[in-house]
Amino acid sequence: MTISFTKLSLGKLSNTEMYQLASTSLNLIDKSQLNLENDRVISTLIIRLRQLVPSLGTLLKEEVKSDIASSLKAADKLRNDDLSSLFASIKLYKNSRQSNKQEAVKSLSSLFEQYKGVSSLDYEKKTAELTSLLDRLSKAPYKESSKLLVLGEQIENLRQSQADFYNLYLKRAEVKANRVTNNKREVRLELEIAYRRLCDYLEIVQTVSPLAELNPLTKILESIRSEYKESLNRREGHKKEKKISTTTEKVEKVS
Fold first, then answer.
1. Which domain holds residue 31?
2. Residue 63's pLDDT band (cuts 50, 70, 90)
3. What angle do CA 165, 128, 109 make, to 5 degrees?
4. What is the gyration radius of the CA atoms in the chain, in angstroms?
């Protein structure tokens, strides 16, 4: 009896799809509680897959690092803008005729002067300085001065942008901590090779000398391969439709 898996072009799968295919395969194998220790080749290849899947997963997280860096830069600019807005807001009361407001302006001006140049600091120092500023603004006498000059909105904006920045900063630190030294392309290739070898070997074994104990594994792999094959077919179909549509539009324009 010849066993043949659905033909699947692994090279056409994205890194994420390859990761999901291998990860799903391992999850289903675990759930089925298959005993594969009797076949050394299969058990060795599955062990290899268990090593490579987490590595590729970690590397895929690295892809979002550039997005995080961009978002972090934007978040930092926003808190710089909020800080500038806060500093500028007291100028509205600079020529106030009310003595209490004049005193409030004087008090806050003295405080803000201590944080002049904060915007040019690196992320870590700036975060520490802004945390200090916000803390002092929440206490006397600056709390009363801020309330008198109606700076609540400006202070809250800075507090929020500082918090948003810090959350992104922690996210970036987490990504860096999970970084692996392997090159993503190499790990992807190794994973692809290990998976292909598992399927090829299983095809040969089940064709030459079928083993009932390997039937569940065969069904698991075939089921997943079929799903991804259908997904690729749909993708190719959409590409062809888009190409035909684009060609038709060009012909109509020429006409």
1. 12-63+184-241
2. low
3. 100
4. 31
